[in-house]
Each structure stands twice: as structure tokens, then as C-alpha cells.
Amino acid sequence: MKFIEEVVVEEFLPTFRSMLAEDLRERGLTQSEVASVLGISQSAVSKYAHGEVARKDVFLEDERVRELVTEVGTGLSTGDMSRVQALIEAEVLIRRLEARGDVLASLHEEAMPELAAYEGEFRIHDPESELRTTERVLSSVRRGLRTLENTSGFAGLIPNVGSNLVECTPDAVTIDDVAGVPGRIFDVKGRATVPGDPEFGVSEHVANVLLTAREHGSEARAALNVRYDPLLSALLSEGGYTVIEFEGEGDLEESIAGALDSEPEATVLAQTGGFGIEPVIYVLGRDAPSVADAIEPLLR
């Protein structure tokens, strides 16, 4: 794991400081004065002056970097710009270079190929970035899956079609905004088996149940399907969940919509089955771990 700050320190700062030291020297400042202005040692300035510090061409040739060096060099040499302002201007440029597709971001992706695999736009320091949101959702699903894997007897609750634990992003619209288990969770010799790490867009059935529930007023962001049993419905109801049952012979999404129209606060949707349709319970919740936690009391 490599932080983008490391890329800044190792790749950007030596070049930027070298360029700025060179600019200030050309404006008549002594090595001692340059050292004082930049807050570095005089020996460091000497190394810059004698080309003993490696400089990266991608920054040397970047017009924005060159313009900032000129602006800061002018301001510091004349006294029109304080060191604080110079620092702020440099930090602003660094944040711009960290944007997806820009210089620092590209260098960071070279060091962290996992970032390069992400297709969306993001800034690594943006607390509201889509990347941060999706990674948190994936982490949440992983925690929920660990709970299910460690819950004794959960395999016995997996329906014939398999289970899936899913969670969506706050503004989810399609199944591509919902993370789940690729291939679903199956009972393999009495053990719940998760075939792979959670991904977005791999669950169609349970993801559509969650999206349909949200479209009709539910605030849930996660869902899990288990086999239907009247006893399980009763236990969930006793545990504080709002359970609503409906037959499953019609279109599932229409059935869910009708159920939620009659009981908007429902947190358990129990499809009692129909001809050729396996009965299933869908547990809804605020996130994947809380949905997984709902299962353990059913197995006591």
C-alpha cells in the first residue's frame, strides 16, 4: 500500500523545490537566503544547484508547475508573497495534480495498480468520492459475509437457489450500484460457501429486490435472502422486525411494491411461494453486517 503523500514527497517535491531554488537563485538570492525562504538546509540548496537531486521530467515540463514556480519565485523574492501563501498555492496545485488522470494520480496508480482498475472519477483525498463510497460498501459486505460464515447453522437457511448478501451505495439506481457475492452463497456439505470477493453488479435477483424496496419507500441499503419458513417469519417478528408476507406467483417486483405500499416500514419480505416458485425470505437492513446479525438469533 502506497500513499499518494509518498508520491508527492518522493516524486514531486524534489523537482518542485529544485525548480524553485533555481528560480530564486536566478533572481539574485544567495544559497543562504534561498535556504531560509524555503525552510531547507543550505546543503540541500547546494545539491539542487549542482544537479545532485534527481528531477522528474513530467513535472519539469508541466506548464502549471512552471507557472507556479515563476509566481512563487517572484512573490518570495520581492516580499509580496508570504511563505504561508506560497505553501497554500503549492498545496492547491498538488491537489489538482491528484485528480484522476492527472500527473500525481497517474504516478500513484502506477504504484497502486488496484486504483488503475477503478473506472470511475475520483480524487484520492475527497471524503465524498465515489471510490471511497464503493470501497466502504465492499468492506461492509465483507464484514457481513464473515458473520454469516461464522454463524453456525446458517448453511441450513440457504434456499435451493442460493443466498446473496448485498449492499448498495446511498444513491443506488441500478444493479451496478449494488455489491454482492458473485455466483451466490451455497450450502456445500453443510457449510456456507462464498465463491469470491464481493463485487458490484454481480447480483441480479437480490439486488433487484433491494432496489425495488428502495423505490417504494424503504430506506434499507442491504438485503439477504434465506429459505422461507413460517417459524422464521415469527422469530423475526418477535425480534422486532416488521414482517409482511405475500404470495409469489406474480411478478416479484410488483409483489414487493404492493407489499410495501400496504406496509411501508416492512423490514422482512416473506415470499410464501407458488407453483414452481421456491418460497424465500428477504431481510432488509441499514447495512450488510446488521442484516447478517439478524440471522444468528434464528438459529438458537
Helix content: 40-55%
**Shape, per Cα inertia axes:** elongated
Quote the distance from N terminus to C terminus: 41 Å
Q: Order of strands side by side in the largest beta sheet?
A: 5-2-1-6-9-8-7
> What share of residues are in beta strands?
5-15%
- Contiguous uncertain segments of 5+ residues: none
Looking at CATH, which topology of the largest domain would you report?
Answer: L-fuculose-1-phosphate Aldolase
Question: Helices and strands, in N-to-C order?
Answer: HHHHHHHHHEEEEEHEHEHEEH
**What's the number of helices?**
13
| Strand element count | 9
Gyration radius from CA atoms, angstroms: 28 Å
GO molecular function: DNA binding
Domain HTH cro/C1-type: 20-48
Protein name: Bifunctional thiamine biosynthesis protein ThiDN
Organism: Halalkalicoccus paucihalophilus
